[in-house]
Structures are given as structure tokens and as C-alpha cells.
Automatic annotation (TrEMBL):
Keywords assigned by UniProt, alphabetized: Membrane, Transmembrane, Transmembrane helix
One Pfam match: KAP_NTPase
Protein name: KAP NTPase domain-containing protein
InterPro entries, alphabetized: KAP_P-loop
Domain KAP NTPase, residue spans: 20-133
TM stretches of this protein: 148-166
Length: 201
């Protein structure tokens, strides 16, 4: 009983459904001088419709083509084909963007250690830049707009308590005197210090 494997074809000899025509159309889009990179091309279709076969026919034809262009550079050296299997990095704990960048970097001849330094290490650089007096004043206002009024209210309350204490506390009372080391008595000539002494009876 004959059977056909469900896999992509690798040559036009195996093409029984005309995928080579789509491969040629793909080549005309990619290698046309009218389309300046970067650009994206999508092959859309259901499962098993031949998307991978179209891609494989194009990449195999590119690798086997050593014909040179007018500039003297072979076609296979003017275009670089990189295959990335996204199905391997589909888990929620895997960073597919980082995996894609790593794969492309290595395929283009990049160094693994250099890649690690550029993509996996967080490099921090601090720069000082003067933003002008207006920005400085704005930042200063935002920083002090809340604590400064609270500080002024607290200072006013403190001075108010001191004033009330100086005016209404009975300074001749021994209990009041014991709460302070010294106090000043108001006279018409100014403030004079008053000392305290204790005698034994």
C-alpha cells in the first residue's frame, strides 16, 4: 500500500502540486530591486497546504545557485536564509523574542560571549545633563510643595505654644519652674535671666 510522508519537499522533482510556481513568485518578491528591505512576507494557509515546501524550494534553489549578478557576487552570497523554529519556544516561560535574536545573531556569525554581553547583561550608564532653570525650579516646587506648608504650619504651632506658655503659665509656681532649666522675666528694660536656688531647712 503506497504512502506519502507528511513532510516538506526538497526539490522540484517531488513537486506534484505546483508549489514551484509559488516559490518562484516568492523569489521575485524577495530579490526584486523594487522592494527595499526591511519588509515582511507571509505565507498563509491551512495545515499541510505546502507553506514549508514553498519555503524549502526557494532556500534550496538559493543554496544551489552560484550564478553571479552584474556586480560579480554569487546569488547565494547576496541573500542569507535563516530558518527559525518558533514551535520550540512557545512556552509561557520562554522569551521567544530573545531566542529569535540569539538565533539570528549566531547564524550571521556572531560570537556567543558577545551575544551574552549584549543581550543578557544589563548595562547601566549614568549621565548628568543640565535641564535649565525652569525645569530645576519646577522640580524644586514639586519636591517642596507638600512638605513646606506642613513645616510652616508646624513652626507656627510651635511658636504659638511658646507664646501662650510665656503669657499664661504661672512662672512663680514651683512646678512650672521645675519643668524648665531657666526662664526669662519680661521687664520694661528688656529680658533678664533669673537663677534658681534651693535652701535646706
Amino acid at each position: 500500500m503506497p504512502a506519502v510522508l507528511d513532510r516538506q519537499i526538497a526539490s522540484e522533482k517531488q513537486d506534484a502540486f505546483g508549489h514551484r510556481h509559488f516559490s518562484q513568485a516568492l523569489r521575485s518578491l524577495i530579490e526584486s530591486g523594487r522592494h527595499a528591505p526591511p519588509f515582511s512576507i507571509g505565507l498563509l494557509g491551512g495545515w499541510g497546504t505546502g507553506k514549508s515546501s514553498i519555503k524549502e524550494l526557494y532556500t534550496r534553489g538559493l543554496e544551489d545557485d552560484a550564478s553571479a549578478s552584474s556586480s560579480g557576487v554569487p546569488r547565494k552570497d547576496r541573500f542569507k536564509s535563516i530558518t527559525f523554529n518558533a514551535w520550540r519556544f512557545g512556552g509561557k516561560d520562554q522569551d521567544i523574542k530573545r531566542a529569535l535574536l540569539r538565533h539570528v545573531f549566531l547564524e550571521l556569525g556572531g560570537d556567543e560571549q558577545a551575544l551574552h554581553d549584549k543581550l543578557f547583561r544589563n548595562v547601566t550608564r549614568t549621565e548628568e545633563q543640565w535641564k535649565g532653570w525652569r525645569e530645576y525650579a519646577s522640580q524644586l516646587w514639586r519636591a517642596w510643595s507638600m512638605p513646606l506648608p506642613a513645616f510652616l504650619v508646624a513652626m507656627l504651632a510651635l511658636f504659638g505654644l511658646i507664646w501662650l506658655g510665656l503669657k499664661y503659665l504661672p512662672w512663680d509656681d514651683s512646678l512650672v519652674q521645675s519643668a524648665f532649666i531657666f526662664h526669662r522675666k519680661v521687664k520694661t528694660t528688656g529680658f533678664q535671666p533669673v537663677s534658681f536656688s534651693a535652701t535646706m531647712r
